[in-house]
Design a protein that fits this description.
This protein is mainly beta. About 0% of the residues lie in helices and about 70% in strands. It is built from no helices and 19 strands. The chain has strands at about 5-10, 10-15, 20, 25, 30-40, 40-45, 50-55, 55-60, 60-65, 65-75, 80, 85-90, 95, 100, 105, 110, 115-120, 125, 130. Strands 3-8-13-19 form a four-stranded parallel beta sheet, with no helix packed on it. Strands 5, 10, 15 and 16 form a four-stranded parallel beta sheet that branches.
Length: about 130
């Protein structure tokens, strides 16, 4: 799984199979994940973990006047989270405990034969979806 995050003053541009931001301030920016994923597995075991393939995950952040775009093609992938407070995402946008203001969220993912599995307390399992908690 490749992950490249480029942060510049006033802008965040991210490319790779998964983009993850935690405790960040994103203002007037573009968060972009454009990826092709085939036959990958992301597994998180334990407390407060996440398993993501071809996804954008934002947690405990402030997003203002920004664009979040996930454009991924996913085939035969598995995301598995086992434990308390975990998430499993394939081709999804997941925003948790964050403040989103005047922003655009676009998830354009193509998914075939994928599995997202969450086992335990307060878990999520998403394929090709947008989840805001």
């Amino acid at each position: 799984m490749k992950k490249i995050i480029i942060i510049t003053m006033g802008a965040v541009v991210a490319l790779g199979s998964t983009v993850a931001l935690a405790e960040s301030k994103v203002n007037k920016s573009i968060i972009l994940n454009k990826s092709v994923n085939k036959g990958n597995a992301a597994i998180a075991i334990g407390k407060d973990n996440a398993a993501n393939v071809g996804s954008v995950a934002i947690k405990d952040s402030k997003v203002n006047k920004s664009i979040i775009l996930n454009k991924s093609v996913n085939k035969g992938n598995a995301a598995i989270a086992i434990g308390k407070g975990n998430a499993a995402n394939v081709g999804s946008v997941a925003i948790k405990d964050s403040k989103v203001n005047k922003s655009i969220i676009l998830n354009k993912s193509v998914n075939k034969g994928n599995a997202a599995i969450a086992i335990g307390e307060d878990n999520s399992a998403n394929v090709g979806s947008v989840e805001i908690k």
